[in-house]
Fold this protein.
Amino acid sequence: MNGNRRILVIDDEKGLRDMLKYELESRGYAIDAAANGDDGLELIRRKEFDVVIADIKMPGMNGLQLLEKIKKINPDMDVVMITGFGTMDTVIECIRKGASDYINKPFTMNELNIVLDRISKQRNLKETVALYEMGKQLFSTTDLTEVLKIIMTSVQKILRADDASLFLKDGRKLCLAVSEPREPREPRRKEAGDSPDTDWNMDIQALSRNKC
């Protein structure tokens, strides 16, 4: 049931990382794990995750510092903070910096599952609202360039994508609209399989350019 959901666990305690990986994978999640904030950020820059679970107290970069960096890379990332110091001040600071939820040590897998289910429901609600708003905007204009922009922006928002492409076919002619990466995300890191001439900063190319 959770096979399409990918979670990143960041914690310096190997026992906790291994336990969460085993338990969450048994529930159908795809799990990656990192022992510190730097390794976690490297994974976040290379892969797409639905949720990050991170401990607040870690050597080097602590959880709150990590949370701030995650939000700079992807402001829409859902982050659950694990804390053994569940004071109200800590909780408020986590939420203020953008955490979706928190959980106090020691915790049970049932408690963590409740948190993950709540995040999933909140995301589904946001996606439903985004689709509704896209529908309203589409019916408010007949300008094709504006329609393309609405579709591209909405798709990126719903899928939390760095970029998106839309192919339009007019008879035998193929037109292409490409959106630029969303802000304020960090630029996507090119992978080995990317075309060397790929332009990740291309603006939307309207039909007027292609004369379709």
In short: The chain has a mean pLDDT of 78.
